[in-house]
Amino acid sequence: EIASCLVGSEMCIRDSGNKIRTLLNRFQSEGYKTIIWNGKNDKNVRVAAGMYLYTLYVEDMIQTRKMVMLK
After folding, report:
1. Which of 1, 10, 56, 69 is 20 to 30 Å from the Cα of 30, by its Cα?
2. Which tens digits make up the pLDDT trace of 20-41?
């Protein structure tokens, strides 16, 4: 949970440094959020199975975590 209002929040998915998809790029209210990725890139093409990194940018905070895409 983010304790303050998200200003200019953005969530991106990357594989080995290349941006695959931007899932969120807007203002959000505080609280728990769920974001579902459909496994497609910004060109609406399904990506390969494997490990991906997602990064959440919120004001002065940046968090990066791993996730695994299974098919």
Report:
1. 69
2. 888 888 777 777 878 888 999 8
Say what the pTM is: 0.72
**What's the CA gap between 11 and 57, in Å, rounded?**
6
Please say whether the beta carbons of 52 and 64 come within 8 A.
Answer: no
CA dihedral 46, 24, 15, 38 (to 10 degrees): -20
Cβ contacts of 70 within 8 Å, gap of 6 or more? 49
Report the side by side order of strands in the sheet with 18-28. 18-28, 6-15, 50-58, 61-69
Tell which wins on pLDDT, 2 or 64.
64
